Write the structure tokens for this entry.
Amino acid sequence: MNWWPLIGVLVVAIGFVLRLNALLVVVAAGFATGIAAGMDVFEILAATGDGFLNNRFLMIFVLTLPVIGLLERNGLREQAERWVLGLRGLSTGRLLIAYQALRQSAAAISLTHLGGHPQTVRPLLAPMAEATATRTHGMLPDSVRERLRAMCAATDNVGLFFGEDVFVAFGAVLLAQAFLAQNGIAVEPLAIALWALPTAIAALLIHGARLSRLDHRMTAEIERLRAAGAAR
Amino acid sequence: MSSAALLPVTALTPVYVLIGLFLLAAAWHAGRDGNHPRRWSSALFWGLLALLFLIGDALPSVVVGAVIVALAVIAGAGGVGRGARSERGADERAAQAARLGNRLFLPVLAIPLVTVVGVIASKLMLVDGKPLLSGQQATLLALSLGCVCALLAACRATRESPARAVDAGRSLLEAIGWAALLPLVLAVLGGLFASAGVGESIASLVASVVPTDNRLACVLAYCLGMAAFTMVMGNAFAAFPVITGGVGLPLLVGVHHAEPASMVAIGMLAGYCGTLMTPMAANFNIVPAALLELRDANAVIKAQIPTALLLLAANVAIMEWVVFRHAG
């Protein structure tokens, strides 16, 4: 049993706990792992370079930024607020539940790009959630606003993750099927995708239940903050 | 030597060139911004990164690796700052919203629309009966095309210039800062972990502590192993072969006769619960916190932990209930 490869995991864990610059921590962890695996500095640099070039597509999200930035300059977030306030009686919790249901169903039929943090969460969902919350609760304290925004991002992630696996041709399904085939077990991709359904439903119920309590929790938090402010 | 040999051209070259040009524009703006708090180091950071996108394929891997180290050092020394904002005042934005109305939504919708149409169209482009582009290449090219179309539509709707759009995008990129590079560097680390055998160490660790004759203990080991190793790697795809090969197949299928298709489906989703709880999945958890301008970089993870833990428990229950349905 060789424990040395795990040293990189340790470096990452310590770095994140000490809140050091994550970019630096991750590069350092790469060196620690490489040295533990018996690579020399040039081999580690070459592996880092190759890995970078092969994964460059991960930066593609920056191409959405000019579009979103220009539209935000011209009132996209304000228009999102105006639009959502036209829907009378829509609570923040219900808005997010509807978003999750839409995001998850779209992902399940392979429309994973119908949503995302730069495209929809920042310019549309977050301003809508803040507008509906402000309508109910008045000006939001910073901590409440911060947590609401984080919940918008969380809802996008949950909807995407537990929707996309239901689609037969999704990468995870094909990866799982190919892996089983390598190990001499033949299964249909459809059989794998089908068994993602119970978890998809559980995700809708569990996260939806948390969202349905969101308005209640914001009320409680704001009252607590007001009481603390009044006591001072 | 022809220039094609110097700079290898692949299907994704246009995507990389677009990203590189945008990053170059960010470097240029930072270098020209006299009030930029980290003027030259920011320009150097975005400029070096742009170079890797534009001519990275022509450089030796060692040089690319050395540039990554330099970028991490610049970021670690606090060298990446935020320059002039491109935003307008709140009153002006509200006036524009009132004037332009729902027309503002169309360019946003154009991104997924063009992407989907492009992906479908690419399936029709066959060479010798095989698709010209792989699924991933098609998606990335279509997404880039979607962004370009959306940019033109946005310029048309707002009557502003593409140069203005690039500046607005640069302003958003600077709001994200060095965290924009984090998903990529984490993917590199995942590769190094894999080649050093981190997965095998973890799988044998898990297998050595589990009472193999206890069925529920094996289900727990597989699901929790997937979640935990996904948290380490930041990616369920990387954890899947290791934990399924080290725990799932030998213990659940081998010893307890679990049905493989449902086991791998639910195992993968148990891994996704781990993705919700780790800063290593930076593109889902850390970049959005920067995009939403949250003070706490881990705020999105904190919002997700209750959902992730409950859903992990649900996956254990579903697996225990489903995978042994044919076993004696």
User: Anything to note?
Assistant: The mean pLDDT of chain A is 89. Chain A touches chain B through 113 residues (CB under 8 Å). Residues 142-164 of chain A form the longest helix (23 residues).
